Amino acid sequence: MAKAGAIKDLRLQVPYKIVINGKNICTYRADFVYKDASGKEVVEDVKGYRTDVYRLKKKLVEAIYGIDIVEIEK
Known about the structure:
By secondary structure, the chain is an alpha+beta fold. It has one helix spanning 52-65, and strands at 8-20, 23-35, 41-47, 69-73. It has one domain (8-73). It has one helix and four strands. A hairpin with a 5-residue loop joins strand 2 (23-35) and strand 3. The two termini are 18 Å apart.
């Protein structure tokens, strides 16, 4: 998609720190972050299985950063 020009600024394994009340709780790593054709930032995660820890981190990152994580099934 990047080579075809459908997306720009592709980054891999992008860390998002989960900090609550000034305390670093953990880090979520997005598999892919890029800008789509309209310039909107997209965060994607490829999953074969959704663990409880992943589900919790996803909710926290979406709430803290105001983003929606797009899940791609393996």
